[in-house]
Amino acid sequence: MTSAQKRRLADVATLALCWGAATGTVLAVLAVMGFLICRGTGTLGMELFFGQVHWRDALTGARPVFDGLWPAFAGTLILVVLSCLMAVPVGIAGGIYLSEYATKRFQSVAGFAVDLMAGIPSIVMGLFGFSMVVVLRNTFAPQAKTCLLLASLCIALLILPYLVRTTQNALSGLPDHLRLLGPSLGFTAWQNTRHVLLPSAGRGILSGVILAMGRAAEDTAVILLTGVVARAFLPRSLWDKFEALPFRIYYLAAEHRSSAELDQAFGTALVLLMLTGALFGTAFFIQRTMEHHWKK
Amino acid sequence: MASEKWIRRLLCAAAMVSTAAAFCILLVLIHLVLPLFTSGGLGTVLSWQWLPFQGQFGILPMVVGSLLLSLGALVAATPLAVGVSCFVQVLAPDKVRGACLAVVHYMTSIPTVIYGFVSVFLLVPLMRQWFDRGTGFSLLTAMIALTLLILPTIVLVFHATLREVDRTARATCAALGFSRPSYIRRVLLPLSRRGLLAAVILGFGRAVGDTLISLMLAGNAPMIPSSALDSIRTLTAHIALVVATDSQSTFYHSVFASGLILFLIMILINLALRRLGSSLAP
Amino acid sequence: MAFQEPFLDMRDVTVSFDTKTILERINLRLNSGELVMIVGPSGCGKTTLLRAVNRLNEEYPGCVTQGRVRIRIQDKWLDCSTRDFPLIDLRLRVGMVFQHPNVLPFSIRKNLTLPLRVSLGLDKDEAERRVQQALEDVWLWDEVKDRLRDNALTLSGGQQQRLCLARVLALDPAILLLDEPTASLDFKATQKIEALFQSLKERYAILAVTHSLSQMRRLADRVLVLRNGELVAELGREEFEDQESCRAIMEEYF
């Protein structure tokens, strides 16, 4: 084979790999989604959510929902809201400090911890929550058990590093002339951050928050160890066990007893996919419009 | 200016939370694993047999399972990711490029449990049919699903490097008469090796840390597999199984040891990424 | 007329970042009602010189400024290069317009009222009053008076830059620092802004940086040539008025 032929062969191989990989990936995603949509769409409806109970009774909690995903849906929503309430203020504040106030040294040390936190497998985060219960049981609270509050706390720790990093990146990505604007108008450091930098980086931070919400909604491993159960109805307090969408999918995949339950599983999976998809879409859109603003 | 000072302190405290939490997790894990060292139970945990009711709590099969699964997925995902990244950056027509990148971004938002769930009902029956052996829940099945899971992570990190390199090199190489494929092979990829390494390490971190794929698809038998069609159990799945089945607390030591091993792996990965000037967070 | 005469006096000002010296022993006086322009090759420290006046360089780590900068307010000389001089007062007396129009993603009105309320602590009515005055000063009032609630990013580049200028003027400064304020604008908008500066130099002392020699000839009363961080020449109006001699001089210094 001549070298020219070899080169042409290598070119063709490169082209084939690139096109093949891209097509294959897109096809795989389409297969995953298509399969779920095919099997799940038929189950969508009031009955999937509330079973035989009227939706008004279910929403007010007047009657418990036995064969619908409403308790799991509500559980996931509560989980997301609670963990965001804990993680968002801390994450944004931490990101502001790292970007605007911290010394190089602090940035590097705290940055390492943030990266490490981002890398900790969620099952280990769940194990941490579980071990806190173990420790509490052995010390001053023998009746301690896993619960909604604990799960939210662990999820909050899970999404915290993402919030810190996206805030930090959104702020430090701002152009220099904007950073100097506040001081040139006589603002103090905090006034500059509060009135100039945060509003300008707002979209980036917001999309980070929404992505973090998606992460909180989808995570299964953390709640697996910190209090999720297959049947709990609506949680009545923070100390209760709870249901959640991702766990319901996992549970039904392994433990479905009838084809009706399997249909429920597909419906639940589709609902979760739509939920995270909507969050992703929102964040993506916000980010696109932001880049339009500052990266001219 | 007093309030300025307090705001600064408050923000600083918030920034410390992550550091404190990372420390806390490490300390709690060490605290719970420590009895193993003092009671001499270390040998029973670092052994090759998991027969809890006969007093054998070895987690080494799970360590091997985790490594095999992650490395396998990595071997499959890396060339795919390189292909996708180069396609997006160099080969794709303008309209396709945006859509393709959006799909990859979207993949990161698909819940892990969905990958697992779809694989149980789509991939597992296929595997059973094709190989006509076993239950279909195997190392190979989990590897395929995991490949799909870590692919977007690797693509996004690698593509960021690729974009920078492409910006500096493209015009020059086009002027020198490189064809696009040979430009990819001779210039782009050699110049972005570091970025690829960082992306692969990051993907490895994702793969080792994943729980749901291996828990739902790998079969969870605590043994050393003799083929890709055998069942395995990973460290993460081990933690989930032992804690969730709520067996006796004598089993817990092995669980905490598994957690600690995972944590230490993450520290190593993080240190490696630091040297490469990359990070686990977005 | 009790006209406040703003003055700026810089003595032996040296600015260095880490170990690199950017400006070396700069001496500069700025009289009231005068527009002084600084020219020089890129990277010679023009922007740093402007930022030495309102001490904006100190926002960066590793910056050391030596020498003395004084401004005169109400017939009193104040040494604003000392550590204990209130930075905020200095920056309110010395307004700055940047190269890129850096409007904030708020409404037009809020872009103007925000610094008034945050830095000066004015009440709502007083801030509103100043908004109109400032917008009239930059000839923007008629163009935007019906859309003060619109996002400022909807304005054209030239309008945005004039809004930035209005934002500074509303704070009632004595000295204006202009850092290539027309560099990112098209020809038409540049023309308008230049005319605006002509009218403003009656009331403010203006120190400006420019890249364009023709703009320098149109606007400047006095020109300072900066090279490698040192002032190498000072030219009066008559020296650069004539196109040929101006070109010859510039050839020599660039």
Can you describe this structure?
The complex is a heterotrimer of chains A (296), B (282) and C (254). Chain A has helices at 3-40, 46-50, 55-60, 70-101, 104-119, 122-138, 148-172, 176-179, 181-184, 189-218, 221-225, 245-255, 259-294. Chain A has 296 residues and is mainly alpha-helical. The longest helix of chain A has 38 residues, at 3-40. The mean pLDDT of chain B is 88. Chain B is globular. In chain B, β1 (50-51) and β2 (56-57) form a beta hairpin. Chain B contains eleven helices and two strands, in the order ααββααααααααα. Chain B is mostly helical. Chain B has a two-stranded antiparallel ribbon with strand order 1-2. Chain B has helices spanning 2-39, 42-45, 60-91, 94-109, 112-131, 139-175, 180-191, 193-209, 212-217, 235-244, 252-276, and strands at residues 50-51, 56-57. Chain B has a single domain (55-280), classed as MetI-like (MetI-like fold, Orthogonal Bundle), CATH 1.10.3720.10. With 254 residues, chain C is an alpha/beta fold. Chain C is 37% helix and 27% strand. Chain C has helices at 46-53, 87-93, 108-118, 124-137, 141-144, 157-169, 187-200, 213-219, 237-241, 243-253, and strands at 7-17, 20-30, 35-39, 63-73, 76-79, 94-97, 175-179, 205-209, 222-227, 230-236. Chain C has a six-stranded mixed β-sheet, with helices on both faces. A four-stranded antiparallel β-sheet of chain C has the order 2-1-4-5, covered by helices on one side. In chain C, β9 (222-227) and β10 form a beta hairpin. In chain C, α3 (108-118) packs across α4, α4 (124-137) crosses α6 (157-169) and α6 (157-169) runs parallel beside α7. Classes of the chains: A mainly alpha (296), B mainly alpha (282), C alpha/beta (254). Chains in contact: A-B, A-C. At the A-B interface, α1, α4, α5, α6 and α7 of A face α1, α3, α4, α5 and α7 of B.
What is shown here, in short?
The complex is a heterotrimer of chains A (296), B (282) and C (254). With 296 residues, chain A is mostly helical.
In round numbers, the mean pLDDT of chain A is: 89
**Poorly predicted tracts of residues of chain C:** none
How much is the radius of gyration of chain A in Å?
Answer: 24 Å
The greatest interface here is:
A-B, 93 and 92 residues
Strand-residue proportion of chain A: under 5%
Order of helices and strands of chain A: HHHHHHHHHHHHH
Give the strand tally of chain A. Answer: 0
Helix segment tally of chain A: 13
**Uncertain spans of chain A:** none
Taking the sheet with the most strands of chain C, its summary is:
6 strands, mixed
